[in-house]
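Re: the pair you flagged

First of the two:
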Amino acid sequence: MDQLASFIWLVYNIYFYVILIYVLMSWVPAVRESFVGELLGKIAEPYLQIFRRFIPAIGGVLDISPIVALIALRFIAQGLIAVLDVFIR
């Protein structure tokens, strides 16, 4: 169980940083248009789009959906570990 939980946290941390870097790259549009920016966009954007549908940008400028998406991602990881803990033990 510990190895599975460690793997879930590893995947969570990797995806957390992918989203974080992708969001920070929005401050520098030239970086987002690079190969790395496009790759991160293909990985992060499908998950972020779920939240952008329901959470509009504040004033058309400030997008808080990535914050909500990262919080939800944390709850998903914790919930998955809790469910696995119940079924495996």
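Second of the two:
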Amino acid sequence: MSTTLRTLWLIRHAKADNPVFGETDAERQLAPRGLADVQRLSKHLARHNPAPPQWLWVSAATRTRQTAEPLADLWHSQVIYEPSLYLADTLTLLDCLQGTPDDCSSVALIGHNPGVSDLAHLLLGQEDHQTVPPDLPTLGVARLTFQGDWPELGAGRCRLASYLTPKGLRTGR
């Protein structure tokens, strides 16, 4: 087992507009509040940016792309739009993350619920379960750490480094 310390950012996409007639779910855009929340998060992370991800796994949906673009610009991350992440379940997300290149010590995944929330709870040790709600809010960000290689990522292997929400950023908490 590797002793490399890894950082994993699990991010639920920002608030999306309601569906519009003739538009698929995957085409839904961010709502004005979602766009504002992404800008607020980007500004916060520019001031407090520990272990910025070198690699972003992103669902191919429009709302996840719109969430990812400002963050990728801030972090100078390589973005991988992965179609299998659209509304993916926990095991699909985990499988994707386990395929992350070994030279990446910090990675982000931007996706959808319930998969992102379920994955956070699968990866976290028991002591961190109370800090992260069962369902991450839109643009909820759980930053996790673990020691090992990406293929070793699994149940209970991670510790919570930080948890951010748009509401917390708006109120300064």
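DSSP finds five helices and six strands in the chain.

-B.
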